[in-house]
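Blinded run. Sample ID left blank on purpose so nobody reads anything into the name before looking at the predicted structure. Input follows.
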Amino acid sequence: MTDKRMVVELDQVNTVANRFLAELRDVDVQKDPLRFRRNLERMGEVFAYELSKTLDYEEREVVSPLGVANVRLPADQPVLCTILRAGLPLHQGLLNYFDRADNAFVSAYRKHRKGEDGFDVEVEYLSSPSIDDRVLIISDPMLASGRSMVLVYKAMLRMGKPKAIHVVSVIASTEGVEYVKKHFPPNTRFWLGAVDEEMTAEAYIVPGLGDAGDLAYGCKV
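Blinded prediction complete.
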């Protein structure tokens, strides 16, 4: 059986998305939270456009003031899922283009072990429509170890079995990509802005861009 899993890296081609990605990494541009959020949103819009080419379409008729036009429109709308809080701007970019999509939100966070460097990933809150036989798009700006993404996917399965899955991240680590490829089903496509080789012991991507949630919304206690 052919493995249908695909990994698309946007930075491998010359597009304007590379400028958005460069600004997201830039320590000077990062000082403007509004621009940081907008760049995440713009990356979401680029991802949505590219991802839309893979969906199923059907012919429809649209009546204009001068006649009838035959157009090809998406056969159904996806479910957009994101991980709170860092995923919100990226999610909004996807929603700007998939503007009729249903939405799901999941809370996942790192729970650090007392007196240790390690941490566990906890999933607490989930709000979602049914995803039975739907296209599921899960987005999170950073795909570091991949553990959060896999746990969120498993939590979403409580809401049904999707017919196709897309994972969207602005920056991923090589290790994280390999991890999610092992734990997601064969009908998954991974849409990544860039893949960085290194990751610290604390599971931060190098060079990455830092903590996306803090840069977008301010430091947390």
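Unblinding after everyone has recorded impressions. The domain at 6-57+74-217 is CATH 3.40.50.2020 (Rossmann fold).
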